[in-house]
Amino acid sequence: MAPISVYGASKAAGEDAVRAAAGRHAIVRTAWVYSPHGQNFVKTMLRLGRERPELGIVDDQHGCPTSAADIADALVAMALRMTEPGAGGHDALYGTFHFTGMGATTWYGFAREIFALAAGHGHPVPGLRPIATSDYPTPAARPKNSVLDCSRLRAAYGIEAPPWRDSLAACIARLCPQFLEQTA
Ligand SMILES: NC(=O)C1=CN([C@@H]2O[C@H](COP(=O)(O)OP(=O)(O)OC[C@H]3O[C@@H](n4cnc5c(N)ncnc54)[C@H](OP(=O)(O)O)[C@@H]3O)[C@@H](O)[C@H]2O)C=CC1
Ligand SMILES: Cc1cn([C@H]2C[C@H](O)[C@@H](COP(=O)(O)OP(=O)(O)O[C@H]3O[C@@H](C)C(=O)[C@@H](O)[C@H]3O)O2)c(=O)[nH]c1=O
């Protein structure tokens, strides 16, 4: 591991602590998580889309949008498999795994899809402008490439996320009526 920020170092330290605690464990790394709950990129976009006529969105960072509901499904399936009789004899079920939505994009590509789906629910659509990371300075550096290889989880558990656009559509279908109610 080679963390590029304090945040990344804290994630690496968390993983090391799990491994040092010994015993059977599964660490699941993810990225670009969104959900109808809490604060996340999808909700930020829908809010800003109502407030501003145009948004500049970073188009040179790559990743795989991941639904929190899909993570929950994957973790439950892993836990059920791990607690089956004889699972302890299968080394492949333990260790470090990756899980993200299937397929990659940029934040700009993600935003375009959010608004393409939201438009179908009558949500306002702002102008979207692709920008570089250097045009959106933040105190903490973000990775240029957050795309994770999820093949180990697929091989060990047969678990694979749906294509990211499918899961996003489900989230937007839940969120848009709430947003439109707030503005009514
Ligand atoms: N968002 C993402 O894309 C990714 C997130 N992660 C990791 O997943 C985890 C969750 O991230 P995310 O959902 O974005 O974060 P949020 O900040 O949205 O949620 C954090 C949650 O942890 C709870 N919490 C914070 N401190 C404590 C505490 N001391 N005791 C009990 N609960 C606490 C908060 O409770 P409350 O709401 O009451 O404050 C909140 O529900 C983090 O470890 C993050 O680093 C990993 C990869 C990607
Ligand atoms: C609001 C806004 C964001 N952005 C970009 C900047 C940033 O790179 C990107 C996402 O911004 P956010 O602040 O939502 O998220 P950010 O903290 O960069 O996202 C991360 O969260 C942590 C916890 C992770 O682990 C990551 O995998 C990832 O999901 O969107 C724009 O380009 N224009 C905008 O108007």
From TrEMBL:
<keyword id="KW-0560">Oxidoreductase</keyword>
<comment type="pathway">
    <text>Carbohydrate biosynthesis; dTDP-L-rhamnose biosynthesis.</text>
</comment>
<dbReference type="Pfam" id="PF04321">
    <property type="entry name" value="RmlD_sub_bind"/>
</dbReference>
<dbReference type="InterPro" id="IPR005913">
    <property type="entry name" value="dTDP_dehydrorham_reduct"/>
</dbReference>
<dbReference type="InterPro" id="IPR029903">
    <property type="entry name" value="RmlD-like-bd"/>
</dbReference>
<comment type="similarity">
    <text>Belongs to the dTDP-4-dehydrorhamnose reductase family.</text>
</comment>
<comment type="function">
    <text>Catalyzes the reduction of dTDP-6-deoxy-L-lyxo-4-hexulose to yield dTDP-L-rhamnose.</text>
</comment>
<protein>
    <recommendedName>
        <fullName>dTDP-4-dehydrorhamnose reductase</fullName>
        <ecNumber>1.1.1.133</ecNumber>
    </recommendedName>
</protein>
<feature type="domain" description="RmlD-like substrate binding">
    <location>
        <begin position="2"/>
        <end position="175"/>
    </location>
</feature>
<keyword id="KW-0614">Plasmid</keyword>
<keyword id="KW-0521">NADP</keyword>
<dbReference type="InterPro" id="IPR036291">
    <property type="entry name" value="NAD(P)-bd_dom_sf"/>
</dbReference>
